[in-house]
Amino acid sequence: MPIAFDAFGTLFDLNWLRGPLRELAGARGDDLYDAFYARLQPWTWLATAAGAYRPLPELAVQAFESAAAEVGAGVDAAQLAQRLTELPLFTGAEAALDALAGQRLAVLSNGTADGLHALLSRAGVRDRFEHVLAADSVGRYKPAPEVYALAPEAFGVPPDDVTLVSGNGWDSAGAKLAGLRSVWVSRGRPAATVLGIEPDAIVEDLSGLASELGTGN
Q: Which residues of the chain have pLDDT under 50?
C-alpha cells in the first residue's frame, strides 16, 4: 500500500525553530514562535478558502512579520522563513523510513516543491521517496481535496489504496474526507476526532508505523 507522509509536524520538527528564535529575540523567542505558529496554519486555510493562494515561503514571511510586530521583536522575516528548509527530522524518523524500505513512499505537503526538495535533501532522506508532492502544484492548501488527490494520481492507484501519515489531526481528517486512509501520529496527545472523523490507526510516534501497517522489514 503506498504511503504518503506529511512533512511539517510529522517528519520534521517545527518546534526546533524555538532555538534560533531565542538566539535572535532572547526572552521573546518563545513568544515569537507561538505567535508565528498561531498564524501559519490558519492562514493556509484562509488563503485557500478566500481563493488567495500564495506559496508557503511567502506566507511564512508574512506570518513572521506579523508575529514579530505582535511581540515587539525586530527580526529578518525572510531569513527566518528560510529556516523552514533546515528543520531536523523527528527523532526516530529516519529509522522508521528504514523500516519501510521497499514500500512506495511519498511526501505530501503544503510546502513548495523546491522547498521540500531542499528540506529532504538536507536531511539526507530525499532518495527514500518516490514522489515529492507539493500544494503549490494545485494552488491550494490542505485540507483542500485537490491536494490529497495528488497522491493517488502520482501512485496510479485508487484513493483508498493510499495511506496518509500525519501528526496533524485536521490533516488526518482531511485525508479521510478525500477518500484516503490515514494514520495519526499522536506524540503523547489524547485522541480526539475532527468533525467526528477518526483515523484508521494511531501511533505514538513514527517508530510504531511499520508494525501498525504490517510492512516492517
A: none
